Amino acid sequence: MTVFPALDLMGGKVVRLAQGDFRRVTVYAQDPVEMAARWAQAGARWVHVVDLDGAREGQPKHLHVVSALKQCGLRVQVGGGLREQAAVEAALEAGADRVVVGTRAVLDPAWLDGLCARWEGRVVVALDVREGRVVVRGWSEATPLDVWEAARRILACGVRHLLVTDVAADGVLAGPNLSLYRHLGALRASVIASGGVRDAEDVRALRRVGVAGVVVGRALYEGRLRLEEALQAAEPDPGEEP
Asked: Taking burial as the number of CB atoms within 10 A of a residue's CB, which of 76, 81, 108, 222 is the most buried?
């Protein structure tokens, strides 16, 4: 299982929002590249970047950071403000290995089809979930789609990776929604879990329900979980199927 340390960027700084609320922001670092370099030294292979300014303004604002992160030897997965094909292309040209798209991917399957046809395997769709239903537009608008139905539709477009966030758990160290990820395991898709991870045991629990990756943010920043511990917990136990 892949561990993705999270870099949520606002005004060039590393921050975290509680449950996606821009009024509940905590600044954790001034220099995202310096932080990413420390993670690379600790053994990280990927970093998950969320351009919060881009998400609010509708176009990416931190692509220069993406380019700098590549110099740390990390693979970069980035989202936030990628609502047009040109923005997706710009992110990939800046060095992103994968791009994360959300609202438009859920609401506009034809657009998603086009992305997957052009950049096969490099498109991740974010499914944000509240009480089993998919929410869009920065978690402000509920859809009639349950997460299972939405995931099946998206995978039919050729998507290989789903980033699934339990909105209620995000940024509040409440523990991951294991039942949600266990339910999605039957899809046999590459599911990346996001939201609620507190410690190494949460990482182990997610590995055991079969997710392909986990995004870890606040627990790292607040010292509740060391990256080395998370990476170790992501590896199969002796005798366990990888």
From this structure: 76
Tokens read off for 197? 């991870």
Q: Is 0.90 surpassed by the pTM of this model?
A: yes
Q: Domain spanning 2-233 has what CATH number?
A: 3.20.20.70
> How far is 44 from 182, CA to CA, in rounded Å?
25
Q: How many helices (H) and strands (E) does the chain have?
A: 11, 12
Of 39, 90, 89, 102, nearest to 69 by C-alpha is 39
Both tokens assigned to 205:
């629990």
Q: What is the pLDDT of residues 133-152, one digit of tens each?
A: 898 877 677 889 999 999 99
Which of 51, 128, 170, 202 is labelled catalytic? 128
| Strand (E) or helix (H) holding 150 | helix 147-156
| Bridge pairing between strands 161-166 and 141-146 | unpaired
User: Among residues 8, 170, 199, 202, which one is catalytic?
Assistant: 8
- In the annotation, is 128 catalytic? yes
